[in-house]
Amino acid sequence: MSTPQELAGQAWDYFQLGATENAEQLFREAVAADPQYAEAWCFLGIVCKARGKLDDAVQSYRQALRLQPTYFEPLNNLGSMRLLRPTCPDCAARRRGCCAPGDGWD
Fold first, then answer.
1. Is there a contact between 61 and 28 (Cβ–Cβ < 8 Å)?
2. Which element (helix H / strand E) includes 49?
3. How far apart are CA 21 and CA 8, in angstroms?
4. 31 and 74 in contact (C-beta within 8 Å)?
5. What confidence tier does 94 reach under pLDDT thresholds 50, 70, 90?
6. Residue pair 8/37 in contact by the 8 Å Cβ criterion
7. Is residue 106 part of a domain?
8. How many domains does the chain have?
9. Residue 104 within any structural domain of the chain
10. What range does the domain containing 9 cover?
11. Residue 103 lies in a domain
């Protein structure tokens, strides 16, 4: 049986090869095996973002930050996610983004 660190290493290898579905599955296995593994949560966020699963990416980065509040990478990645957030015509007309507190992206 692989350790969470071994699973994460294999997941990153898959990600670098472009096999993002396999990478996501292995990162999910790593965090299931060790829910306190902040680095795996962060890298799961990276993979989810690459797969277009933006809400999952945000949640993964947030979990990494809950575990390690000073962990820069998920904080930076979460900040960059705000730039990818879709906007709706109603919010644009009111000159504010769809980033109202509580919308899941803040």
1. no
2. helix 38-50
3. 14
4. no
5. very low
6. yes
7. no
8. 1
9. no
10. 4-93
11. no
Distance from C-alpha of 73 to C-alpha of 77, rounded to nearest angstrom: 6
Q: How far is it, in rounded angstroms, from Cα 72 to Cα 54?
A: 19
> 90: how many CB neighbours lie within 10 A of its CB?
9
Of the candidates 86, 61, 96, the one whose C-alpha atom is nearest the C-alpha of residue 76 is 61
Question: Cα separation of 88 and 5, whole Å?
Answer: 40
23-72 residue pLDDT tens:
999 999 999 999 999 999 999 999 999 999 988 999 999 999 999 999 99
CB atoms within 10 A of CB 67: 17
List, in order, residues 6 or more apart from 103 with CB less than 8 Å away.
none
**pLDDT tens digits, residue range 69-89?**
999 999 999 888 876 665 555
- Asked if residue 81 lies in contact with residue 104, where contact means CB atoms within 8 angstroms, the answer is no
For tokens 């904080």, the residue is 75
